[in-house]
Amino acid sequence: MRERVRGKTMKMLITPDWLRKRIENDPDIEVEAGGPAALLESLGMFIPGDLAPADERLKVAFGVVVRQLRLREELTVAELCVRADVPEEQLRSIEHDPHFKPRPRTVYQLADYFSVSKRGMMKLSGATRAFSPEFKEAAYRFAAKSDDLSKLTDEERQILNDYVKFLNDQSE
Amino acid sequence: MRTLLGTYPLLNRQTGSWDDAQLFSPISQDNVDDFDKLWRPEFASRLALARSRRETLAEANLQDAHWDWPGKAKDRNSRLDWTSFGVECDSRTQGLMFVGLASFAREPSQKGDHLAYIDLLATAPWNRPQFTDRPIYKGIGPLLLGTAISLSVDEGFRGRIGLHALPQSEAWYRNVCGMTDLGPDPAYSNLHYFEMTEAQARAFVANQHK
């Protein structure tokens, strides 16, 4: 049997008869290979793909939240990266590039460090699409109210705290 | 362009019949849709059951439930160093596999040689003996592994393949497929890394069964 694979020829070395014999003789056990779901157990959620267009406004809000949480703690990017154990280039991209897709582990570590709902932060980061219209609206409102200043004003701090409370109140 | 590589029999454990399955490359939008609409809900409901039974993810064979198949299909279908495969039967995607072609062997006898690296290999949740009490199709694992060996030979890698096995699958790769277990890989969540040499690949695709 010779078939085409992506413009080139690939010869299959196994036959239907070979497979039938293997099935008859092999034990009935698991065959999966690949990475474990290190985050899944603790997050209790799935990390879906993003074939659907990402919601850039949500990701803008995610970057603003992370930046403001960092400012609230009066940390530099480098300091936060050490404390939360996340790569510096990831954090810089999260704060400044709404097209950037952060790794789930990074989101998890940041949520853990700031004691913010991991589920809410995963939604906000674009790692999952399962969010309600209310969730989106709250994120948009938060991002719109928050200026990109080097220090938080009292009002911004209050807005941030209220939004963190909203995230922490998120259910499934 | 999506290509049919062949039609192979799978054993339907429920009916005892042999059903024809089609092997395609690369993975298509239909496969991605099946993962999203058919596989993922199964994972979700089984995860809830596993929690109620206090099972680990390994015991429920759910450790790969997070795999970002749709994203990987989208990213990799346009890249020449990745090839993907889908197995379809009964109008549903029954198995998926990604193979990378830019990896090098670690096993001493072939260290530094090119090999085909199986990044991800998975059967549909309803086919997994540890996932469900009534698994349906058997044979997707050897079909995909035989496909990876065929690809390796076709690429000039002489059948050499490598992969990181999930814990519940180590016995299959070690004892059934005859691959060399190079032990836990600290760079990969301590999953055991397995390699198949040219001789082991030849033995696997020959009609020799243990």
Query: What is the element string of chain B, with H for helices and E for strands?
Result: EEHHEEEEHEHEEH
Structure classification of chain B: alpha+beta
Distance between the termini of chain A: 49 Å
Characterize the main sheet of chain B.
Answer: 9 strands, mixed
Task: Summarize the structure in words.
- With 172 residues, chain A is mostly helical.
- Chain A is 55% helix and 5% strand.
- A two-stranded antiparallel ribbon of chain A has the order 1-2.
- In chain A, strand 1 and strand 2 form a beta hairpin.
- In chain A, helix 3 packs across helix 5 (88-96), helix 6 (104-114) crosses helix 7 and helix 8 (133-145) runs antiparallel to helix 9 (154-168).
- The longest helix of chain A is centred in the middle third of the chain and has 17 residues, at 56-72.
- The radius of gyration of chain A is 22 Å and the shape is elongated.
- Chain A starts with a strand and ends with a helix.
- Chain B has 210 residues and is α+β, with helices and mostly antiparallel strands.
- Chain B has a nine-stranded mixed β-sheet, with helices on both faces.
- In chain B, strand 1 and strand 2 (18-25) form a beta hairpin.
- Chain B is globular, with a radius of gyration of 17 Å.
- The model of chain B has no long low-confidence stretch (mean pLDDT 85).
- At the A-B interface, strand 1, strand 2 and helix 1 of A face strand 1, strand 2, helix 1, helix 2 and strand 5 of B.
